[in-house]
Design goal:
single chain, 73% helix, 11 helices, mainly alpha, globular
Length: 284
């Protein structure tokens, strides 16, 4: 038992390290760190400029600006975990021709996928921290690091990581059915971006779409991140719910996402093995 756990842990660490190397394109740490810093800052500033142009500085928009910046900054986890992870798995098959060897390795394939997904999610931590610091200093948002509810933030992020990981793993295996599936992971991430309360409350969505959006764990995760950081000094998507009730909904939505992701993964994995998708020649 101990030997099996040690072998699994060793394989997991190897998968995480492989994910880091692939993400950085095997470059030296300094250029990769610079790129990691510049990319989230540029994306956030572009959105802020668009926001200022549209609003024209009219009215008291500080609360919504805080709502927007926190949603954009924490969305790096979804971008890394869904879009970039799906592309990485497809590149393992089509570009590097090594996905079939990951299947044949003594390490169980789900452990390999979890390791690769973990490297993507942990790399997003720096993006979130950088954007929040820049927003606090440059945009004068009411963010005080000493007043952040870190336990609530940590629990919410942990549940969100689990749900994002379950969704991205299932999606990546489903996308193996296509010869040219590049771009679908990014499309899915952008769809979630619109319906998960990252840039505007889900209450502005049409009724049926708002209902389905409320089933996503990402909505409750973003709500808790804003509450834990700003303590009510921001628009709330669920003003009638307490922090505990939002956290309970997040936990239930995460459990549902994990169960659904597991069922989809098992089905897609059987299809991939039976129909030869794992080593299929794919478009580059």
């Amino acid at each position: 038992m101990v030997l099996a756990l040690a072998r699994t842990w060793s394989g997991y660490r190897t998968a995480v390290r492989l994910g880091w190397l692939v993400s950085s394109n095997w470059t030296s740490p300094v250029p990769f760190v610079i790129y990691t810093i510049i990319r989230p800052i540029s994306g956030a500033l572009i959105l802020v400029v668009m926001y200022n142009v549209i609003t024209g500085g009219r009215g008291n928009t500080r609360n919504y600006l805080a709502f927007l910046v926190i949603g954009v900054s924490f969305w790096a986890f979804v971008t890394e975990g869904v879009s970039d992870f799906a592309v990485g798995i497809l590149e393992d098959r089509g570009r590097f021709k090594m996905l079939k060897y990951a299947y044949l390795a003594p390490l169980r394939f789900p452990v390999f996928l979890v390791g690769r997904a973990s490297s993507k999610l942990t790399s997003a931590v720096a993006s979130v921290a950088i954007v929040l610091v820049v927003a606090t200093v440059g945009l004068r948002l009411p963010i005080n690091p000493l007043s952040v509810d870190y336990p609530l933030l940590a629990i919410a992020c942990l549940l969100a990581f689990i749900s994002v990981m379950a969704f991205s793993i299932a999606l990546s295996v489903v996308l193996l059915a296509g010869r040219d599936a590049y771009g679908y992971g990014e499309i899915m991430a952008q769809v979630l971006y619109i319906v998960s309360g990252a840039i505007f409350p889900i209450s502005v969505l049409p009724g049926p779409l708002a209902f389905f959006a409320s089933l996503s764990p990402l909505v409750y995760w973003l709500e808790l991140t804003r509450r834990s950081i700003l303590h009510g000094r921001v628009y709330e998507m669920f003003p009638g719910l307490s922090d505990g009730e939002v956290l309970t909904r997040l936990a239930l939505a995460t459990a549902g996402t994990v169960l659904l992701g597991y069922l989809v993964y098992r089905w897609a994995d059987r299809q991939a093995r039976w129909k030869g998708y794992i080593d299929m020649d794919a478009a580059q």
